[in-house]
């Protein structure tokens, strides 16, 4: 790591005792990156940008926020009205959460498309999933803090899921609440945990990047780096490309903040929490909707429920198992994918199924947003979500290994360098 | 570049589809007509004259039943009322005075009070929900400070709510209702018919009509104008930061667009030697 000679005496002095400058050099200028990365590779740096924005705005919000059931709602309004630029902080934070999820979802689908979860990057994929789980928890906890109607009822519905655990379920729920309903103790602990988890995420991100720097980036060709010809230094090539991406991202993100700050939120959350009034539809934040649909798909008469019935599992517990299972299966994806080829670019069949999977997830999201009695193309959503839930698991657990075995893949280039140099006319002929 | 556009579009579609879904989920609320608001759009601004008229409507009509507890009297200066007028208005209300020199807050069983000041939050018409219900035959008039944000299409909904009352339930509605729900629509005693309120029956009697309030600036005192003005005022009460937000947005966007163009040019240059 000490292959760099530092000229500045202060830098040199520090570096000889703690090689932070060498580390920085090593992971930027000295870090070889595939030269063929496309713009889908911008979403990692965008996710980090989001995390930093969330932590900074969150810390400032916490300075003016009061985690008490009778004061939380008004304290958020005070932030909006009386704290200097408080409205900006809060809208950055609330919309930042949505942007963070959009970015991370695109990042995850990118990994699925290019096979980035495959050997040797399994650890990277696991750490990513751990980050995603921690984000889901953080987002849920944060949404409870403004103590509006959706905060309160969302918290009630989601914590109640744990009552499906056999034998100890109800005790677990009481323990989570710190009482016999969602109330002040719940709000207090949720605030504490909402403050903690982002720093856990930060640590996970550090590990994620460490793992990345060991195995190096995948790339659209899905072939490993073989020679220096395949790479360019991260800095300045990808620093400038990432900066450009961040600028474009900020345009989209801030357009929401300045002109549609409540577009992604729910109007009911501007009504203070009231345990006596249940809103007509309790909907989670948009980023949980596909999982919410999977949860609700398991009704007593659903075909997908039948196997659970054999083991005396209640429909509610089956839904909870499936909901968590939907993320757990992703941990097995590196082995469920049996193809020799990583990138969907050279997998004509998988490529189509990938997009069907994406659409299927969007359909699940739609089902999660609407009531099960509504319809999509004339079909009752209850049925749609059952089929889509089945397909979600079928894609990952059955189709993915099968396609891997049976698909006739296209010819993969020998190297990254070969993938980017366009074949000359004579070669083509 | 093309790829980036695709990814941006993809992201937007992903967000939009989720949004459309959640928006739909917000309820079976009847569609309301969109209105022209001076404060909507990229460069939206409040019309101060309109806010002042709206305040008049609120003060003379709605304030009897609905509070604005998130708004302080001093905030009313922002819509162009004079300090004198606001001080005078605030002094009509009483707030707890806090301990006197003997450390008492209650003397002879009476809470010590003083007239409200500019720094106080607006005093609601009822001490608590129970008191409000007693005075409104069991119904609860909600606080209006966040009303336009607490309803889907807030301002448009509010305007429709205030203007779409009917004295008699219309025949056409009764027929349509029966076809859809298979049973008769009955309006209970003490309820009013409203086209946009969920369930079509509301415990608030039509609060506004022609000439409810006398305008001093020559604006026609029609129901529509009253409704529009009070809605604009309530939107200001819910989003007093709107003008600052939008004008900052314009500046930030101009900056970001220039920055993006420059970063893109720089990126092109740096990458020009990569094959
Ligand atoms: C992974 C990063 C984070 C995510 C995804 C996240 C998410 C959220 C969400 C969804 C809300 C509700 C916003 C609303 O509807 O008003 C919220 C509120 C809040 N968050 Fe975070 N947050 C993160 C990091 C942080 C951090 C690091 C802090 C403090 C150090 C923090 C402090 C707060 C506070 C005080 C509120 C309540 C104020 C409000 O509702 O606007 N957050 N967060």
Question: Topology, please?
Answer:
The complex is a heterodimer of chains A (429) and B (275).
Chain A lengths: L8 H9 L2 H8 L4 E3 L8 H22 L7 H10 L4 H28 L8 H23 L4 H12 L8 H9 L6 H32 L15 E3 H26 L29 H9 L8 H5 L4 H22 L11 H22 L5 E2 L2 E2 H26 L9 H5 L4 H4 L1
Antiparallel strand pairs in A: 1-2, 3-4
Helix pairs in contact in A: 3-5, 3-9, 3-10, 4-5, 5-6, 5-10, 6-7, 6-9, 6-13, 11-13, 11-14, 11-15, 13-15, 14-15
Chain B lengths: L1 H24 L22 H13 L22 H8 L3 E3 L9 E2 L2 E2 L1 E3 L13 H7 L18 H10 L1 E2 L4 H11 L10 E3 L6 E2 L20 H16 L3 H30 L4
Antiparallel strand pairs in B: 1-4, 2-3, 5-6, 6-7
Helix pairs in contact in B: 2-7, 5-7
Describe the structure.
The complex is a heterodimer of chains A (429) and B (275). Chain A has 429 residues and is mainly alpha-helical. Chain A folds into two domains: 36-282, Cytochrome Bc1 Complex, Chain C (Up-down Bundle); 284-412, no CATH class. Chain A has 17 helices and four strands. Chain A has helices spanning 9-17, 20-27, 43-64, 72-81, 86-113, 122-144, 149-160, 169-177, 184-215, 234-259, 289-297, 306-310, 315-336, 348-369, 381-406, 416-420, 425-428; strands at residues 32-34, 231-233, 375-376, 379-380. In chain A, the strands form two sheets. In chain A, strands 1-2 form a two-stranded antiparallel ribbon. In chain A, a hairpin with a 2-residue loop joins strand 3 and strand 4. In chain A, helix 14 runs antiparallel to helix 15. Chain B is mainly α and 275 residues long. Chain B has three domains: 29-68 and 140-240, Cytochrome Bc1 Complex, Chain D, domain 2; 72-121, no CATH class; 246-275. In chain B, 43% of the residues lie in helices and 6% in strands. Chain B contains eight helices and seven strands; from the N terminus they run H-H-H-E-E-E-E-H-H-E-H-E-E-H-H. In chain B, the strands form three sheets. Chain B has a three-stranded antiparallel beta sheet. Chain B has a two-stranded antiparallel ribbon with strand order 1-4. In chain B, strands 2-3 form a two-stranded antiparallel sheet. In chain B, strand 2 and strand 3 (110-111) form a beta hairpin. Classes of the chains: A mainly alpha (429), B mainly alpha (275). At the A-B interface, helix 4, helix 5, helix 10 and helix 14 of A face helix 1 and helix 8 of B. Residues 51, 54-55, 58-59, 61-62, 65, 76, 90, 93-94, 97, 100, 135, 138-139, 142-143, 145-146, 194-195, 198, 201, 265 of chain A line the site of protoporphyrin IX containing FE.
């Amino acid at each position: 790591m000490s292959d760099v000679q530092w000229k500045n005496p202060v830098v040199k002095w520090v570096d000889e005792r703690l090689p932070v400058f060498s580390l920085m050099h090593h992971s930027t200028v000295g870090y070889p990156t595939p030269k063929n990365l496309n713009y889908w590779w911008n979403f990692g740096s965008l996710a980090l940008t989001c995390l930093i924005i969330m932590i900074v705005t969150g810390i400032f919000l916490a300075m003016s926020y009061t985690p008490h059931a009778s004061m939380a709602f008004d304290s958020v309004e005070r932030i909006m009205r009386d704290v200097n630029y408080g409205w900006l902080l809060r809208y950055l934070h609330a919309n930042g959460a949505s942007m963070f999820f959009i970015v991370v979802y695109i990042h995850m689908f990118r990994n699925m498309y290019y096979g980035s979860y495959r050997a040797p990057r399994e650890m990277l994929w696991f750490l990513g999933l751990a980050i995603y789980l921690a984000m889901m928890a953080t987002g849920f906890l944060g949404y409870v803090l403004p103590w509006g109607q959706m905060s309160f009822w969302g918290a009630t519905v989601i914590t109640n899921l744990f009552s499906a655990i056999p034998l100890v379920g109800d005790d677990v729920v009481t323990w989570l609440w710190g009482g016999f309903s969602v109330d002040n103790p719940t709000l207090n602990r949720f605030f504490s945990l909402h403050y903690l988890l982002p720093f856990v995420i930060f640590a996970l991100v550090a590990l994620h990047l460490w793992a990345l720097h060991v195995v190096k980036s995948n790339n659209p060709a899905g072939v490993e780096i073989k020679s220096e010809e395949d790479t360019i230094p991260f800095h300045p090539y990808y620093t400038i490309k990432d900066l450009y991406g961040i600028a474009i991202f900020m345009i989209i993100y801030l357009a929401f903040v300045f002109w549609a700050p409540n577009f992604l939120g729910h109007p009911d959350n501007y009504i203070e929490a009231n345990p006596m009034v249940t809103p007509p539809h309790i909907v989670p934040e948009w980023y949980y909707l596909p999982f919410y649909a999977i949860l609700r798909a398991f009704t007593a008469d659903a075909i997908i429920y039948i196997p659970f019935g054999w083991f005396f599992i209640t429909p509610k517990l089956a839904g909870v198992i499936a909901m968590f299972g939907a993320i757990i299966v992703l941990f097995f994806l590196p082995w469920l994918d049996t193809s020799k080829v990583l990138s969907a670019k050279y997998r004509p069949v998988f490529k189509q199924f990938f997009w069907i999977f994406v659409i299927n997830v969007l359909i699940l999201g739609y089902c999660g947003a609407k009531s099960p009695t509504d319809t999509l193309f004339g079909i009752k959503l209850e049925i749609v979500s059952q089929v889509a839930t089945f397909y979600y698991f079928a894609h990952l657990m059955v189709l993915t290994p099968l396609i891997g075995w049976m698909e006739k893949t296209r010819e993969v280039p020998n190297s990254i360098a070969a993938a980017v140099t366009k074949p000359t006319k004579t070669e083509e002929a | 570049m093309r790829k980036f556009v695709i990814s941006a579009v993809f992201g937007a579609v992903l967000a939009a589809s989720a949004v459309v879904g959640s928006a739909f989920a917000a309820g079976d609320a009847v569609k309301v007509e969109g209105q022209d608001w001076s404060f909507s759009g990229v460069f939206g601004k409040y019309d101060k004259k309109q806010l002042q008229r709206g305040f008049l409507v609120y003060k003379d009509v709605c304030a009897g039943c609905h509070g604005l507890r998130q708004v302080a009297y001093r905030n009313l200066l922002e819509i162009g009322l004079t300090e004198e007028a606001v001080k005078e208005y605030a002094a009509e209300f009483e707030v707890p005075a806090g301990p006197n020199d003997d450390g008492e807050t209650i003397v002879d069983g009476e809470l010590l009070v003083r007239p409200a000041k500019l720094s106080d939050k607006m005093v609601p018409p009822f001490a608590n929900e129970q008191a409000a219900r007693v005075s409104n035959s069991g119904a609860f008039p909600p606080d209006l400070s966040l009303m336009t944000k607490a309803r889907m299409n807030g301002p448009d909904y509010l305007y429709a709510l205030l203007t779409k009352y009917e004295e008699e339930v219309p025949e056409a509605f009764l027929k349509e209702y029966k076809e859809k729900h298979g049973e008769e629509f009955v309006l209970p005693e003490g309820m009013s018919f409203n086209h946009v309120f969920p369930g079509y029956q509301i415990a608030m009697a039509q609060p506004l009509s022609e000439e409810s309030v006398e305008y001093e600036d020559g604006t026609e005192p029609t129901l529509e104008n009253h409704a529009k003005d009070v809605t604009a005022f309530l939107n200001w009460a819910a989003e007093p930061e709107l003008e600052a937000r939008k004008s900052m947005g314009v500046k930030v966007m101009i900056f970001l667009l220039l920055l993006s163009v420059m970063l893109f040019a720089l990126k092109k240059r740096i990458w020009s030697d990569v094959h």
